[in-house]
## 1
Amino acid sequence: MIKAQLTLAVVLAVCASSGCSTYQPMDPNADIPIVDTHIHLYDTNRPEGVPWPPPDDAVLYRPILTEDFNAVANQNGITATVIVEASEWLPDNQWVLDLVKDEPERYIGLVGSLEIGSSDFATQLAELSRDPRYVGIRMRERPRGDDFFTPEVWRDLRILADSDQTLDVLMFNFSLTDIDTIAKRIPHLKILINHVAGANIDGAPVDPAWARDLELAAANPNVYCKVSGLFQQSHQSPAPKDTDFYRPVLDALWETFGEERLIYGSNWPVTMRGGTYGEYKSIVVDYFSPKGRGAFEKLMYRNALKFYNLAPLAYSNR
């Protein structure tokens, strides 16, 4: 105790002599690696263009490449990332893998895009999965509307599970009851709900109907949730930067999924519509860091490695 008091006294004396006004204690979680499981990369200058974002998007319609994210990652202490394919064009799966092939320690995984229910799904998945960085696919489009879940779709979802590949789900065209149905029908398929399970964030208590459906989906142990898209789900530009604005939704996720099945992601560069990457990350850190070091480690990287079947991190940039 005496030694600690003397150390603090020395620090305060140094601060006083150097002009700093207050003593700032170190963040006890500052050495924890961070894996961002949700970024997009694309090149609007390619001759064939890109299917997303649209040309009239003043924020996003420009090349978003590794040098852009590397700068963001270095500024914000991001150790590694999993890319989520934003294009439905089949060749773009390989385009992203080739784009990041020289930086395997930073770009550790790709959630690709394949047409579920197509005659070529199994062949395409097998070919792309030869690359260990190809960790699964994202389900986002819903052709045929209510008739989406055909026998061919169920066949391909089983192939995905049998291949030990994962399923991300973008909620805009799907519901939490859809998640529950898939999880129950294919219990060995690991499912990761994107963007805080599609919650509408307005600072108020969560919608009771959404909360009930969230509990329904989370009752399946093969369902996880990504703490991503907070700015996007606020439906404001710029987005609020006060952690308390997001607290009702984050409380619901924490209470429902717990520390074992929540995974950090940003949705960069879409985050730029709401604010800086640092502002986004600070909200997540501010809310989850007090949950304890073990829980914070799981959120920021351990759960991601487990869910996507990724190897231990090769390095830390901290």
## 2
Amino acid sequence: MAVVFEKSKVLTDAPLHYCPGCTHGIIHRLVAEAIEELGIEGRTIGVAPVGCSVMAYDYFTTDFIQAPHGRAPAVATGVKRADPENNIVFTYQGDGDLAAIGTAETVHAAARRENITVIFVNNAIYGMTGGQMAPTTLPGQVTQTSPYGRDVETVGYPVKVCELLSNVDGAAYLERVAVNNPANVKKAKKAIKKAFQNQIDGKGFSLIEVVSTCPTNWGMTPEKALKWLEDNMLPYYPLGVYKDIYAEEEAK
């Protein structure tokens, strides 16, 4: 019998703690495959803050550091600068972490063009803490703290991270992807791998935003959550490359 797929050696055998239908598992696999294919497992250090990714160290065979809520880019900066020639450093963060409590760390790491890779999971809600409204929650979206839908007149508009960082001179590569179907999963893996390759090549700050689902806190089945993402999140958070300074330079 032919072997058509093998689990990445960068993933452990620990059972995932994520809810059924959660797309964190897919994203973990893509990150692990990128690390393995680039041959950097022994050099890679992950940084995960508080949030659904809080137990990421159980799932990767690379070294991992637990950071305070929102501070992963600051911790990653220190780890990278401690041994910039050898350490490959990535953060794995949710939207409540990266786009709220850690907004300053994210923006300033990009402004300094820190040579790190950021994996940003945007599911438009606070997942681990019970489904509260997040900075990325869509206008009109119902959450535990916006039971009548997000009212932009009182709480403002969602934060679009790729668009925001595209105006930061230090950001080198920004791309928004999704993992809601096989075609998008393939594109997501390509983007994640490129972000790691950029770090290997010393190109600076790369962030991959992955539009994702949270079936439990959205109050949907996994299947309906994927459809809701396609119909509601992707129009508001369009996929694509938002900045790639080296591609732009090569095109000149």
## 3
Amino acid sequence: MLEISNISKTFFPGTVNERKALVDLSLSLNEGDFVTVIGSNGAGKSTLLNAVSGRYTVDSGTIEIDGQRMNRLKEFQRAKYIGRVFQDPMAGTAPNLTIEQNLSLALRRGKPRGLGLALSAKQRSRFREELAALELGLENRLPAKVGLLSGGQRQALSLLMAGFTHPRILLLDEHTAALDPQRAELVTNLTERIVSQGGLTTLMVTHNMEQALQLGNRLIMMHEGRIVFQASEEEKGKLTVPLLLAEFAKIKGAMLDDRALLA
């Protein structure tokens, strides 16, 4: 479903600020794979997601989604293939539009616009049903503006919207990092349910190693723009946080605690 072949990305090439964010990186995801991505700051995790989404153009290599070459497509052209949830709860929704208007836009992602009704009774009924599953009471607040919701509610809504049309690829970029522990747990559990029920192929960046172990069937660790460690489903089931820290220590050449890894 996702085939990344030998991609590289360098920022500010030829200057004193040159930084190699991705270096000859390859990664393949089969349909239904849920891969969690860990690594320290600057490892290239978010750059990888931005390259897949089209926000950044890679310098070399290829990206294919469901057999379609993405390299020449702009970010908005890739939208029909990709759903994405960002770290900032405010980034995935339109605050001045209502809940039902946001959901209506998500439902039409990648589709041609017409002059028909923007929202039908059937769609509104579906929205209520989908929102009720969040257990946040949002199904009773369809006319409310999204800007009035809490960060956790907006992130849950963003996640629902991202998976609404069963995208070929779901990208999650530290989507629980800005939430308090209770809301983070809610969104984590919601992530597991939406991905599982939809059979979504997912690439998730996280700094939370327990979350990385809890979610998904595969795990990769990045460092300096490269994948330096991979765990299959069987291997991932045997991993623990101390074992992950030990693997990272091999790369860094020194023993680290989780605080050092996440700093």
## 4
Amino acid sequence: MTRREPTFFDQEARLAFWMLFPTFTVVLAFVIFPVIWNLWLSLKAVSLGDLRGVSLFEFNMTLENYRKVFGDPEFGTVLLTTLIYTTAGSVLSILLGLMAALLVHGEFPGRSMLRGLFISPYIAPVVAVTFTWSFILDPQLGVLNWLAVDKGLLAQPIPFLSQRWWDLDLLGVRVRVPMALTSVILFEGWRYFPFAFLFILARLQAIPDELYQAASVDGATPFQRFFHITLPQLSAVLSTLFLFRFIWTFNKFDDIFLLTRGQAGTKVLTIRVYDYAFGEFNIGASSAVAMILFGVLSVFLLVYFRWIAKEE
């Protein structure tokens, strides 16, 4: 039997395979294998000193690490704090990005310079901006507290990054504000709004002017044009931005660690990973928290792509 000569489609399929092979190798090495390895560590009693030991590869798996993590009295509070910080920080950064994009969308002198200033929080080193915020919000040396006390807005300085609750009296109603958590959420929104700003501005510039002209002829007010033309045109970009920001903020460690070290009600799951790994030298429990992070994000992605993205 003679050997069949490969057809053009066979050659194209083989070429596609070899072109995808490097990408698959990178994903396998830097995504799939770390997840499997982390799952393996989370099912073993591994300390920091055992990482080079032979016992690391023994098949003695246990769920003790997950019992320790879920049995922690602070776990529910830490998980709730993580979800609040992630959702509020993501929404705030997108709202600030939307306002900034609408502000510089039109033509006016100095628009290019203002656009560059809006991008500066995102490109500045995180250590520098967290130090600046810590200095500004400091209760003793911070300029914000000094101005508020000097102008009579505050009776005494407020430790924004070290006070868990702030009792606020609004028209006779006592409201407890999570001060430190609110401060880091505000930092999150300010730090990452330029990312949303760039995407929203690019989409705004692609909206045809004819839509706004037709709406103006029909007598639509600026608010009606915004809600019936601008927002529908931006819906796909806004939902994608929320997806990205939620994932990245949920995995954030450096911002909160540099601002509060996870104190005063700002401890999130990533801080818990650090505490288990380098505070208790318990790599197994640290890996278990990391797998919980992975599981929560997987559920979020499932819900997003199953319902939100499908509806859009």
